[in-house]
């Protein structure tokens, strides 16, 4: 009976948040913030026979120390699925990894980064600092599930809010091309969230495409097509087709502006991501967009720009969204 009564008291907001429930002989003593009135007691099962309101001392709950208190400082880390990631070169890396395993029960692996995002397939090198020896996990975001292997493909949980923002710009029935799709977080969220939308998700990394196909199946989608191809080649097959073109390759998307403009239909919107200095957030990037549009014989108009996140000291990951218009 105590379980039923406890649930009702929780719903009514009567449970004292800092006092421990305890057993005393055959009774269960439940700490409340104040004396419930007769009307409130009347709705509890067996109130007349089984519930007595008394005054007594309660032991306070033992509050779990914060991660900051355990370490003595606030560590920098990211979490994807059940994997935490920290800088392997941090002098406190081993201490941080141990604290994360002890403090965060949802973490089963702590990886240390030993290289930046690099190479043709935008991957990093990792070392296992604590927990299970693996780089693969399942990440959940906005109702979607993603198989991620951090050794095979880049993935950032920090872009979850940005992905949702872009998805909310896609209208039902629209056609989307994701030129650097990775394991599919933009594409799959669009496919799952936007009625009637169709998505072509392109990436040249075979490891990322393999995971993306797993994720399409995992999320039971038939409106997202994964294509293993270079963006330049794929763009030629998708000319003037897309209502939206996603170019989330901020380190080098500038080199592919012609491709994004080629794929966009008249009136289509390109979501272009770049890394810029705080003294020149959008100016140079917009000039490069105008130059690419001129080469392609098209005009463009800016429909929005924003800082997505801090990337490095004095540098930001930005997004410029522009509409492509025929001459």
Describe the structure.
With 327 residues, this protein is α/β, with parallel strands linked by helices. It folds into 3 domains: 2-50, no CATH class; 67-134, 2-Layer Sandwich (GMP Synthetase, Chain A, domain 3); 156-326, Rossmann fold (3-Layer(aba) Sandwich), CATH 3.40.50.150. The protein has 11 helices and 15 strands. The chain has helices at residues 2-11, 38-42, 47-50, 67-71, 93-103, 160-167, 185-193, 206-218, 231-237, 257-263, 283-295; strands at residues 22-24, 27-29, 78-80, 83-87, 109-113, 126-131, 136-141, 144-149, 175-178, 198-203, 224-228, 242-247, 264-277, 298-312, 315-326. The protein has a 7-stranded mixed β-sheet, with helices on both faces. A 4-stranded mixed β-sheet has the order 3-4-5-6. Strand 9 (175-178), helix 7 and strand 10 (198-203) form a beta-alpha-beta unit. Helix 9 (231-237) packs parallel to helix 10. The N and C termini lie far apart (75 Å).
Give a short summary of the structure.
Helices cover 28% and strands 30% of the residues. By secondary structure, it is of the alpha/beta class. The chain starts with a helix and ends with a strand.
């Amino acid at each position: 009976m105590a379980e039923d009564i406890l649930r009702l008291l929780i719903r009514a907001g009567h449970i004292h948040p800092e006092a421990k429930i305890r057993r005393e002989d055959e009774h269960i003593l439940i700490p409340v913030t104040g004396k419930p009135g007769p009307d409130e007691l009347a709705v509890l099962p067996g109130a007349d026979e089984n519930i007595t309101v008394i005054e007594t001392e309660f032991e306070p709950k033992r509050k779990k120390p914060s991660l900051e208190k355990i370490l003595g400082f606030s560590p920098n880390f990211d979490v994807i699925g059940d994997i935490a990631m920290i800088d392997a070169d941090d002098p406190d890396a081993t201490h941080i990894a141990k604290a994360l395993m002890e403090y965060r029960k949802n973490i089963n692996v702590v990886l240390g980064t030993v290289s930046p995002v690099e190479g043709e397939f935008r991957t990093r090198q990792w070392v296992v600092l604590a927990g299970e020896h693996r780089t693969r996990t399942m990440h959940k975001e906005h109702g979607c599930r993603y198989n991620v292997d951090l050794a095979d493909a880049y993935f950032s949980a920090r872009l979850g809010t940005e992905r949702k923002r872009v998805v909310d710009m896609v209208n039902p029935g629209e056609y989307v091309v994701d030129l650097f799709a990775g394991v599919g977080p933009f594409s799959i969220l669009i496919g799952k969230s936007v009625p009637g939308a169709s998505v072509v998700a392109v990436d040249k990394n075979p490891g990322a495409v393999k995971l993306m196909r797993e994720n399409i199946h995992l999320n039971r989608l038939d409106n997202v097509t994964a294509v293993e191809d270079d963006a330049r080649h794929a763009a030629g097959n998708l000319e003037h087709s897309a209502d939206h073109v996603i170019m989330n390759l901020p380190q080098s998307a500038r080199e592919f502006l012609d491709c994004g403009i080629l794929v966009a239909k008249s009136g289509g919107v390109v979501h272009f991501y770049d890394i810029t200095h705080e003294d020149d957030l959008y100016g140079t990037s917009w000039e490069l967009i105008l130059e690419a549009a001129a080469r392609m014989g098209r005009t463009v108009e800016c429909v929005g720009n924003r800082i997505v996140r801090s990337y490095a000291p004095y540098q930001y990951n930005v997004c410029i969204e522009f509409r492509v218009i025929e001459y």
